[in-house]
Inverse folding.
């Protein structure tokens, strides 16, 4: 069986394999998206395909939506060429339940897949047509936290951002430059309202997106590329809205074992691949069943019936903010960020298998969540924080069938440390005058720095997960030697005092020196990381 528009015509083979096919016309939904685009999305990797694509597929099945998604990639063009085009823009969702059972569903909600290349006149013109269309109601984003970044930790514009500023809208290459250029086209075509919806794990993600767009517009105004009216257009949230969201669905990298199982069911060409940009992707997407998407209901040009999608909640900005803080700054992401690096250091591949077999690391996760973060987490009302944490530790974190790797959890971790740890540390300081009482969070931060050395607890080297600060961290840590704790002098100071990384100076919160000492113990020699875990837990 082939995952293609022709291949899914033979229903009997797919039914026999236990794979559900779309109950709507995939071709009609795609054609509608080309004529009157309604929902576009930037960043078309795994989380988008299984979660956002799954929501759209669900709405298409229910008759709540008749238009497929417009898929736009600004970073890794191999995804379009190797995963979308060869499979007629179809995807295969594989939901992994914690009892070992699976749900297979072909997703037909991806109507058009485009590479956002300003150097290609045909693609650039098509993007302009999409953004000029009055029917376009929202553009959503899963481009990771680094996708919104315009500056480095020193506050200087990143080289490609500076190039976009200097070269202007018609030669934009970065996500924020491309988006702002397309908004300029929409402005010129009638100033139609639109909602720009970040769905990334960033605190106040809508404001982060808005700040980046307005900064690009301001810089272009200084250069004479745009006028004050355009800046006013993107600054008016009654016209160009930036709703906040909270998104939650654990989506591991596509697992080769699942590809083998799919081959056993008769599917062809299911093997995962790694692109030139180190995106690990496959024709199928595997993920857990639980999912949450809380969205601020602010759509000035209307919206699909999102509330009818599985796990979707519409509410106020305050509700979204509390939900996001509960999840990202307290219960889910901090646990992954604190425990995942230790898994790499201890040679453990899978997160669930590790915490199920290592009571100390399970305890670390629970201390981060229940003991240290939950007391500072707000109650969003629509989701009970204690119940959410219980679901994580009783159902989600322990799901070994997810095969979620510790190295994946370390990807881009430097970009989330402020949200996942800094906010809680600041909350303790605000309440108690210091965060020195914390144990698990400082331990997690020290573990992350030790992980960034690229040498495990037995002295074996490994490749760091992609991270914008990997090169800088390697340079900072280069003179520190395992087995020679005396080589640690003041190298960690520029990291732990960096408010761009942690949103605060950790020394001023009473935890900087503690983290240094924990790290010093972790570099005492082989086995030192495990010894520190045993000592403090």
């Amino acid at each position: 069986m082939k995952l293609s528009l022709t291949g899914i015509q033979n229903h009997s083979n797919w039914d026999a394999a236990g794979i559900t096919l779309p109950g709507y016309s995939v071709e009609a939904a795609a054609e509608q998206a080309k004529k009157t685009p309604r929902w576009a999305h930037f960043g078309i990797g795994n989380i988008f395909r299984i979660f956002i694509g799954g929501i759209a597929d669900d709405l298409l099945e229910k008759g709540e939506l008749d238009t497929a998604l417009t898929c736009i990639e600004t970073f890794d063009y191999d995804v379009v060429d190797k995963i979308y085009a060869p499979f007629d823009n179809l995807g295969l969702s594989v939901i992994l339940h914690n009892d070992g059972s699976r749900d297979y569903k072909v997703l037909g909600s991806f109507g058009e897949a485009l590479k956002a290349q300003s150097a290609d006149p045909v693609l650039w013109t098509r993007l302009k047509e999409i953004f000029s269309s009055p029917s376009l109601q929202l553009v959503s984003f899963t481009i990771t936290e680094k996708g919104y970044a315009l500056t480095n930790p020193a506050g200087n514009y990143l080289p490609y951002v500076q190039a976009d500023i200097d070269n202007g809208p018609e030669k934009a290459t970065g996500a924020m430059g491309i988006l702002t250029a397309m908004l300029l086209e929409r402005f010129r075509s009638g100033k139609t309202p639109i909602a720009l919806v970040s769905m990334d794990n960033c605190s106040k993600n809508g404001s982060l997106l808005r700040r980046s767009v307005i900064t690009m517009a301001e810089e272009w105004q200084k250069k004479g590329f745009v006028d004050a009216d355009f800046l006013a257009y993107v600054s008016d949230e009654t016209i160009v809205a930036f709703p906040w969201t909270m998104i939650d669905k654990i989506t591991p990298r596509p697992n080769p074992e699942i590809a083998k199982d799919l081959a056993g069911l008769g599917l062809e060409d299911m093997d995962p691949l790694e692109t030139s940009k180190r995106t690990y992707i496959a024709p199928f997407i595997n993920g857990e069943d639980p999912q949450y998407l809380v969205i601020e209901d602010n759509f000035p040009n209307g919206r699909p019936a999102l509330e009818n999608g599985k796990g979707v909640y519409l509410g106020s900005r305050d509700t979204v903010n509390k939900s996001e803080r509960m999840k990202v700054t307290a219960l889910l992401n901090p646990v992954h960020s604190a425990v995942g690096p230790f898994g790499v250091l201890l040679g453990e591949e899978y997160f669930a298998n590790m915490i199920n077999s290592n009571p100390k690391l399970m305890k670390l996760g629970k201390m981060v969540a229940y003991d240290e973060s939950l007391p500072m987490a707000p109650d969003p009302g629509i989701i009970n924080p204690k119940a959410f944490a219980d679901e994580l530790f009783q159902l989600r974190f322990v799901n070994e069938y997810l095969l979620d790797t510790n190295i994946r959890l370390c990807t881009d971790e430097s970009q989330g440390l402020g949200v996942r740890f800094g906010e809680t540390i600041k909350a303790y300081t605000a309440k108690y005058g210091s965060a020195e009482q914390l144990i698990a969070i400082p331990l997690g931060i020290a573990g992350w720095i030790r992980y960034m050395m690229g040498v495990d607890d037995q002295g074996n080297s490994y490749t760091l997960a992609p991270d914008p600060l990997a090169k800088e961290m390697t340079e900072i840590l280069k003179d520190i030697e395992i087995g020679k704790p005396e080589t640690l002098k003041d190298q960690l100071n520029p990291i732990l005092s960096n408010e761009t990384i942690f949103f605060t100076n950790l020394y001023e919160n009473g935890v900087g020196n503690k983290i240094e000492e924990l790290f010093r113990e972790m570099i005492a020699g082989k086995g030192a990381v495990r010894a520190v875990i045993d000592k403090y837990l």
The CA atoms of residues 23 and 413 lie 39 Å apart. DSSP finds 23 helices and 15 strands in the chain.
